[in-house]
Amino acid sequence: MKIIDKDLRKGWVKIRVEDVDDLWILKNIIKVGDIVVAKTLRDVKMEGEGKRRLPVTLAIKVEKIYFQPFASRLRVHGVIVEGLEEYGLRGSHHTLNVDVGSEITLFKESLNQSLLRKLESLTNKRRFKTLLVAADFDEASLAILYDQGLRFLNDLTLPSIGREDESSVEEVAKRVVEEILRYVKSEDVDFIVVGSPTVLREAIIKELKAHTGSKLRVFADSVSVGGRAGIHELIRRDSVKGLLKEFVIVEGEEILDKFLKLLTTNPERVAYGLKDVEFAVLSNAVDTLLVTEDLLTSNEYERVERILNQVEEKGGRVRIIPVESPLAVKLKGFGGIIALLRFALQRPLNHYGNLSQSQ
Protein backbone atom coordinates (compact mmCIF):
# COMPACT_ATOMS: atom_id res chain seq x y z
CA MET A 1 0.00 0.00 0.00
CA LYS A 2 1.28 3.44 -0.88
CA ILE A 3 0.00 6.75 0.43
CA ILE A 4 0.13 9.18 -2.49
CA ASP A 5 -1.20 12.25 -0.70
CA LYS A 6 -3.13 13.19 2.45
CA ASP A 7 -4.73 16.07 4.32
CA LEU A 8 -5.50 15.19 7.93
CA ARG A 9 -7.26 18.50 8.55
CA LYS A 10 -9.68 17.97 5.67
CA GLY A 11 -9.99 14.26 6.47
CA TRP A 12 -8.79 12.56 3.31
CA VAL A 13 -6.03 10.25 2.16
CA LYS A 14 -5.19 9.06 -1.37
CA ILE A 15 -4.00 5.45 -1.56
CA ARG A 16 -2.61 3.12 -4.22
CA VAL A 17 -3.44 -0.59 -3.75
CA GLU A 18 -0.29 -2.64 -4.31
CA ASP A 19 -1.32 -6.19 -3.40
CA VAL A 20 -4.24 -8.37 -2.31
CA ASP A 21 -3.53 -7.84 1.39
CA ASP A 22 -4.15 -4.11 0.89
CA LEU A 23 -7.71 -4.91 -0.20
CA TRP A 24 -8.35 -6.79 3.03
CA ILE A 25 -6.92 -3.87 5.03
CA LEU A 26 -9.12 -1.37 3.18
CA LYS A 27 -12.15 -3.57 3.81
CA ASN A 28 -11.59 -3.05 7.53
CA ILE A 29 -10.83 0.68 7.25
CA ILE A 30 -13.63 1.84 4.92
CA LYS A 31 -16.87 2.27 6.86
CA VAL A 32 -20.50 2.99 6.02
CA GLY A 33 -20.85 6.75 5.55
CA ASP A 34 -17.30 7.30 4.29
CA ILE A 35 -16.77 8.89 0.87
CA VAL A 36 -14.65 6.97 -1.65
CA VAL A 37 -13.46 8.58 -4.90
CA ALA A 38 -12.14 6.40 -7.72
CA LYS A 39 -12.07 5.91 -11.47
CA THR A 40 -14.74 3.55 -12.73
CA LEU A 41 -16.93 2.64 -15.72
CA ARG A 42 -20.52 3.87 -15.82
CA ASP A 43 -23.37 3.50 -18.28
CA VAL A 44 -24.71 6.96 -19.16
CA LYS A 45 -27.40 8.12 -21.55
CA MET A 46 -25.96 9.97 -24.53
CA GLU A 47 -28.26 12.19 -26.50
CA GLY A 48 -29.01 10.52 -29.82
CA GLU A 49 -26.76 7.55 -29.04
CA GLY A 50 -28.53 5.66 -26.29
CA LYS A 51 -26.40 4.29 -23.46
CA ARG A 52 -22.64 4.27 -23.51
CA ARG A 53 -20.18 2.99 -20.94
CA LEU A 54 -17.71 5.74 -20.12
CA PRO A 55 -14.62 5.92 -17.92
CA VAL A 56 -15.45 8.41 -15.17
CA THR A 57 -14.31 9.50 -11.72
CA LEU A 58 -17.09 9.22 -9.14
CA ALA A 59 -17.41 9.92 -5.44
CA ILE A 60 -19.78 7.62 -3.59
CA LYS A 61 -21.06 7.61 -0.03
CA VAL A 62 -20.47 4.08 1.20
CA GLU A 63 -23.43 1.86 2.06
CA LYS A 64 -21.95 -1.63 1.69
CA ILE A 65 -18.53 -3.22 1.28
CA TYR A 66 -18.03 -6.65 -0.29
CA PHE A 67 -14.82 -8.65 -0.11
CA GLN A 68 -14.60 -12.32 -1.04
CA PRO A 69 -11.89 -13.90 1.14
CA PHE A 70 -8.62 -14.12 -0.81
CA ALA A 71 -10.20 -12.59 -3.90
CA SER A 72 -8.42 -9.85 -5.82
CA ARG A 73 -11.23 -7.31 -5.78
CA LEU A 74 -12.97 -5.11 -3.21
CA ARG A 75 -16.45 -3.87 -4.15
CA VAL A 76 -17.61 -0.62 -2.56
CA HIS A 77 -21.31 0.13 -3.06
CA GLY A 78 -23.08 3.38 -2.32
CA VAL A 79 -24.80 6.54 -3.55
CA ILE A 80 -23.06 8.87 -6.02
CA VAL A 81 -22.45 12.25 -4.39
CA GLU A 82 -20.22 13.79 -7.05
CA GLY A 83 -19.26 13.21 -10.68
CA LEU A 84 -20.43 14.03 -14.24
CA GLU A 85 -23.20 16.44 -13.30
CA GLU A 86 -24.25 16.76 -16.94
CA TYR A 87 -25.49 13.16 -16.87
CA GLY A 88 -27.52 13.54 -13.68
CA LEU A 89 -25.76 10.75 -11.82
CA ARG A 90 -25.93 12.31 -8.36
CA GLY A 91 -28.19 10.26 -6.09
CA SER A 92 -27.90 7.09 -8.18
CA HIS A 93 -26.33 3.93 -6.78
CA HIS A 94 -23.00 2.64 -8.06
CA THR A 95 -20.41 0.03 -7.16
CA LEU A 96 -16.71 0.83 -7.35
CA ASN A 97 -14.42 -2.11 -8.11
CA VAL A 98 -11.12 -1.66 -6.29
CA ASP A 99 -8.37 -3.92 -7.63
CA VAL A 100 -4.61 -4.28 -7.20
CA GLY A 101 -3.20 -1.18 -8.89
CA SER A 102 -6.27 0.98 -8.19
CA GLU A 103 -5.96 4.45 -6.70
CA ILE A 104 -8.69 5.71 -4.38
CA THR A 105 -9.23 8.79 -2.25
CA LEU A 106 -10.89 8.08 1.08
CA PHE A 107 -12.74 10.80 3.00
CA LYS A 108 -13.60 10.13 6.64
CA GLU A 109 -15.33 12.39 9.15
CA SER A 110 -12.51 11.71 11.58
CA LEU A 111 -9.25 10.72 9.92
CA ASN A 112 -7.28 10.39 13.15
CA GLN A 113 -3.55 9.99 13.69
CA SER A 114 -3.98 6.39 14.77
CA LEU A 115 -5.58 5.37 11.47
CA LEU A 116 -3.08 7.37 9.44
CA ARG A 117 -0.22 5.78 11.36
CA LYS A 118 -1.68 2.35 10.57
CA LEU A 119 -1.77 3.17 6.86
CA GLU A 120 1.72 4.68 6.86
CA SER A 121 3.14 1.59 8.54
CA LEU A 122 1.94 -0.40 5.53
CA THR A 123 3.49 1.89 2.95
CA ASN A 124 6.02 0.01 0.81
CA LYS A 125 5.89 -2.92 3.22
CA ARG A 126 7.25 -6.09 1.63
CA ARG A 127 4.96 -9.05 2.05
CA PHE A 128 5.78 -12.66 1.39
CA LYS A 129 3.73 -15.57 0.11
CA THR A 130 4.65 -18.86 1.69
CA LEU A 131 3.63 -22.24 0.32
CA LEU A 132 3.12 -24.72 3.17
CA VAL A 133 3.17 -28.46 2.44
CA ALA A 134 2.27 -31.18 4.96
CA ALA A 135 2.55 -34.77 3.72
CA ASP A 136 2.67 -38.24 5.20
CA PHE A 137 2.28 -41.66 3.54
CA ASP A 138 -1.51 -41.33 3.23
CA GLU A 139 -2.36 -37.70 2.50
CA ALA A 140 -0.94 -34.28 1.73
CA SER A 141 -2.23 -30.72 1.86
CA LEU A 142 -0.90 -27.52 0.35
CA ALA A 143 -1.75 -24.05 1.62
CA ILE A 144 -0.69 -20.45 1.14
CA LEU A 145 0.08 -18.31 4.18
CA TYR A 146 -0.64 -14.62 3.63
CA ASP A 147 -0.67 -11.65 5.97
CA GLN A 148 -4.45 -11.97 5.76
CA GLY A 149 -4.61 -15.61 6.73
CA LEU A 150 -4.32 -19.19 5.58
CA ARG A 151 -5.80 -20.46 2.30
CA PHE A 152 -5.86 -24.17 1.51
CA LEU A 153 -5.04 -24.95 -2.11
CA ASN A 154 -5.43 -28.69 -2.45
CA ASP A 155 -5.76 -31.93 -0.52
CA LEU A 156 -4.26 -35.12 -1.94
CA THR A 157 -5.04 -38.73 -1.08
CA LEU A 158 -1.86 -40.74 -1.55
CA PRO A 159 -1.59 -44.46 -2.21
CA SER A 160 -0.71 -46.43 0.91
CA ILE A 161 2.86 -47.65 0.70
CA GLY A 162 5.47 -49.29 2.81
CA ARG A 163 7.83 -46.81 4.39
CA GLU A 164 10.78 -49.02 3.55
CA ASP A 165 9.85 -49.24 -0.14
CA GLU A 166 12.26 -46.68 -1.60
CA SER A 167 10.76 -46.67 -5.10
CA SER A 168 7.27 -46.12 -3.70
CA VAL A 169 8.47 -43.26 -1.49
CA GLU A 170 10.00 -41.63 -4.55
CA GLU A 171 6.75 -42.01 -6.49
CA VAL A 172 4.79 -40.33 -3.69
CA ALA A 173 7.40 -37.56 -3.50
CA LYS A 174 7.06 -36.98 -7.26
CA ARG A 175 3.28 -36.75 -6.93
CA VAL A 176 3.55 -34.18 -4.13
CA VAL A 177 6.23 -32.15 -5.94
CA GLU A 178 4.10 -32.13 -9.09
CA GLU A 179 1.41 -30.30 -7.10
CA ILE A 180 3.97 -28.01 -5.44
CA LEU A 181 5.38 -26.90 -8.79
CA ARG A 182 1.91 -26.23 -10.15
CA TYR A 183 1.14 -23.82 -7.32
CA VAL A 184 4.61 -22.28 -7.24
CA LYS A 185 3.89 -21.05 -10.75
CA SER A 186 0.25 -20.03 -10.33
CA GLU A 187 0.61 -18.41 -6.89
CA ASP A 188 4.02 -16.74 -7.37
CA VAL A 189 5.31 -17.89 -3.98
CA ASP A 190 8.47 -16.57 -2.33
CA PHE A 191 9.45 -19.70 -0.43
CA ILE A 192 8.26 -23.17 0.52
CA VAL A 193 8.05 -24.95 3.87
CA VAL A 194 7.75 -28.74 3.71
CA GLY A 195 6.61 -30.71 6.74
CA SER A 196 6.72 -34.50 6.61
CA PRO A 197 8.16 -37.62 8.27
CA THR A 198 11.92 -37.83 7.68
CA VAL A 199 12.13 -40.33 4.79
CA LEU A 200 9.37 -38.74 2.75
CA ARG A 201 10.51 -35.20 3.58
CA GLU A 202 14.00 -35.89 2.28
CA ALA A 203 12.59 -37.43 -0.90
CA ILE A 204 10.32 -34.41 -1.48
CA ILE A 205 13.17 -31.93 -0.93
CA LYS A 206 15.45 -33.89 -3.26
CA GLU A 207 12.82 -34.03 -6.00
CA LEU A 208 11.94 -30.37 -5.53
CA LYS A 209 15.53 -29.19 -5.79
CA ALA A 210 16.01 -31.28 -8.93
CA HIS A 211 13.32 -29.14 -10.56
CA THR A 212 13.98 -25.71 -9.04
CA GLY A 213 17.68 -25.76 -8.16
CA SER A 214 18.45 -22.62 -6.14
CA LYS A 215 15.63 -20.54 -7.64
CA LEU A 216 13.39 -21.05 -4.61
CA ARG A 217 14.12 -21.02 -0.89
CA VAL A 218 12.94 -24.32 0.55
CA PHE A 219 12.73 -25.05 4.29
CA ALA A 220 11.92 -28.33 5.99
CA ASP A 221 10.49 -29.44 9.32
CA SER A 222 8.83 -32.53 10.74
CA VAL A 223 5.12 -33.03 11.41
CA SER A 224 3.39 -36.02 12.95
CA VAL A 225 0.64 -36.15 10.31
CA GLY A 226 -0.01 -34.96 6.78
CA GLY A 227 -3.07 -33.17 5.45
CA ARG A 228 -4.70 -30.12 6.98
CA ALA A 229 -3.88 -31.17 10.53
CA GLY A 230 -0.23 -31.23 9.49
CA ILE A 231 -0.49 -27.68 8.08
CA HIS A 232 -1.83 -26.39 11.40
CA GLU A 233 0.94 -28.27 13.22
CA LEU A 234 3.51 -26.80 10.85
CA ILE A 235 2.64 -23.15 11.51
CA ARG A 236 3.15 -23.76 15.24
CA ARG A 237 6.69 -25.10 14.80
CA ASP A 238 9.40 -22.84 16.26
CA SER A 239 11.40 -22.93 13.04
CA VAL A 240 8.40 -21.92 10.98
CA LYS A 241 7.29 -19.28 13.47
CA GLY A 242 10.74 -17.75 13.32
CA LEU A 243 10.66 -17.81 9.53
CA LEU A 244 7.16 -16.37 9.28
CA LYS A 245 7.16 -14.09 12.31
CA GLU A 246 5.86 -11.16 10.26
CA PHE A 247 2.56 -12.86 9.59
CA VAL A 248 -0.39 -11.94 11.78
CA ILE A 249 -1.86 -15.43 11.92
CA VAL A 250 1.33 -16.96 13.36
CA GLU A 251 1.81 -14.13 15.84
CA GLY A 252 -1.86 -14.39 16.75
CA GLU A 253 -1.47 -18.06 17.68
CA GLU A 254 1.43 -17.14 19.97
CA ILE A 255 -0.63 -14.41 21.64
CA LEU A 256 -3.55 -16.79 22.17
CA ASP A 257 -1.24 -19.46 23.66
CA LYS A 258 0.14 -16.90 26.12
CA PHE A 259 -3.37 -15.71 26.91
CA LEU A 260 -4.57 -19.25 27.68
CA LYS A 261 -1.61 -19.91 29.99
CA LEU A 262 -2.17 -16.66 31.90
CA LEU A 263 -5.90 -17.33 32.08
CA THR A 264 -5.19 -20.39 34.24
CA THR A 265 -2.11 -19.16 36.13
CA ASN A 266 -2.64 -15.40 36.49
CA PRO A 267 -6.10 -14.39 35.21
CA GLU A 268 -5.73 -10.79 36.35
CA ARG A 269 -3.12 -10.35 33.59
CA VAL A 270 -5.63 -10.94 30.78
CA ALA A 271 -8.96 -9.56 29.61
CA TYR A 272 -11.56 -10.86 27.17
CA GLY A 273 -14.94 -9.78 25.84
CA LEU A 274 -15.78 -6.17 25.00
CA LYS A 275 -16.71 -5.03 28.52
CA ASP A 276 -13.67 -6.50 30.21
CA VAL A 277 -11.25 -5.29 27.52
CA GLU A 278 -12.89 -1.85 27.58
CA PHE A 279 -12.25 -1.57 31.31
CA ALA A 280 -8.63 -2.66 30.82
CA VAL A 281 -8.15 0.00 28.12
CA LEU A 282 -9.51 2.71 30.44
CA SER A 283 -7.01 1.52 33.03
CA ASN A 284 -4.15 1.84 30.49
CA ALA A 285 -3.41 -1.83 31.11
CA VAL A 286 -3.52 -3.31 27.58
CA ASP A 287 -0.20 -4.38 26.12
CA THR A 288 -1.46 -6.55 23.24
CA LEU A 289 -4.93 -6.80 21.73
CA LEU A 290 -6.24 -9.57 19.48
CA VAL A 291 -9.58 -9.00 17.75
CA THR A 292 -11.52 -10.84 15.05
CA GLU A 293 -12.10 -8.96 11.82
CA ASP A 294 -15.89 -9.28 11.93
CA LEU A 295 -16.13 -7.21 15.12
CA LEU A 296 -14.97 -4.25 13.02
CA THR A 297 -18.07 -4.58 10.85
CA SER A 298 -20.53 -5.58 13.58
CA ASN A 299 -23.11 -3.37 15.30
CA GLU A 300 -20.40 -2.65 17.90
CA TYR A 301 -17.85 -1.40 15.37
CA GLU A 302 -17.73 2.18 16.74
CA ARG A 303 -17.09 0.85 20.22
CA VAL A 304 -14.44 -1.55 18.89
CA GLU A 305 -12.73 1.25 16.94
CA ARG A 306 -12.52 3.38 20.09
CA ILE A 307 -10.88 0.47 21.88
CA LEU A 308 -8.36 -0.10 19.07
CA ASN A 309 -7.52 3.60 18.77
CA GLN A 310 -6.93 4.04 22.49
CA VAL A 311 -4.77 0.90 22.71
CA GLU A 312 -2.53 2.16 19.88
CA GLU A 313 -2.43 5.72 21.20
CA LYS A 314 -1.18 4.35 24.53
CA GLY A 315 1.54 2.28 22.85
CA GLY A 316 -0.17 -1.10 22.76
CA ARG A 317 -0.13 -3.58 19.87
CA VAL A 318 -3.28 -4.42 17.91
CA ARG A 319 -3.61 -7.51 15.75
CA ILE A 320 -6.73 -8.09 13.62
CA ILE A 321 -7.46 -11.74 12.82
CA PRO A 322 -9.24 -12.70 9.55
CA VAL A 323 -12.64 -14.25 10.18
CA GLU A 324 -11.75 -17.05 7.71
CA SER A 325 -8.80 -18.27 9.79
CA PRO A 326 -9.03 -21.15 12.32
CA LEU A 327 -7.71 -18.75 14.97
CA ALA A 328 -10.82 -16.57 14.65
CA VAL A 329 -12.98 -19.56 15.58
CA LYS A 330 -11.03 -19.96 18.81
CA LEU A 331 -11.34 -16.24 19.60
CA LYS A 332 -15.13 -16.44 19.18
CA GLY A 333 -15.23 -18.39 22.42
CA PHE A 334 -13.86 -15.30 24.19
CA GLY A 335 -16.19 -12.79 22.57
CA GLY A 336 -13.92 -12.21 19.56
CA ILE A 337 -11.50 -10.00 21.51
CA ILE A 338 -8.73 -10.77 24.04
CA ALA A 339 -5.94 -8.74 25.63
CA LEU A 340 -2.63 -9.36 27.36
CA LEU A 341 -2.20 -6.81 30.16
CA ARG A 342 0.86 -4.90 31.32
CA PHE A 343 0.05 -5.56 34.97
CA ALA A 344 -2.42 -7.49 37.11
CA LEU A 345 -5.71 -5.61 37.00
CA GLN A 346 -8.27 -5.77 39.79
CA ARG A 347 -11.88 -5.49 38.54
CA PRO A 348 -14.63 -3.88 40.59
CA LEU A 349 -17.56 -6.24 41.00
CA ASN A 350 -20.28 -5.71 38.36
CA HIS A 351 -18.60 -2.59 37.07
CA TYR A 352 -16.98 -1.92 33.71
CA GLY A 353 -15.99 1.36 32.15
CA ASN A 354 -17.21 2.61 28.80
CA LEU A 355 -14.95 4.54 26.48
CA SER A 356 -17.77 6.70 25.18
CA GLN A 357 -18.42 7.93 28.74
CA SER A 358 -14.78 8.84 29.22
CA GLN A 359 -14.62 11.21 26.28
Which strand order do you get reading across the main beta sheet? 1-2-7-3-4-5-6
| CATH top level label of the largest domain | Mainly Beta
Structural class: alpha+beta
CATH superfamily of the largest domain: Pelota, domain A
The poorly predicted ranges are 352-359
Domain tally = 3
Mean pLDDT: 83
Shape: flat
**Roughly how many Å apart are the termini?**
32 Å
Q: How many H/I helical runs?
A: 11
Radius of gyration: 24 Å
Number of strands: 16
Q: Classify the beta-strand content into a percent band.
A: 25-35%
What is the helix/strand order?
Answer: EEHEEEEEHEEEHEHEHHHEHEHEHEH
CATH architecture of the largest domain: Roll
CATH topology of the largest domain, anyone? Answer: SH3 type barrels
Helix content: 25-40%
Largest sheet, strands/sense/barrel: 7 strands, antiparallel
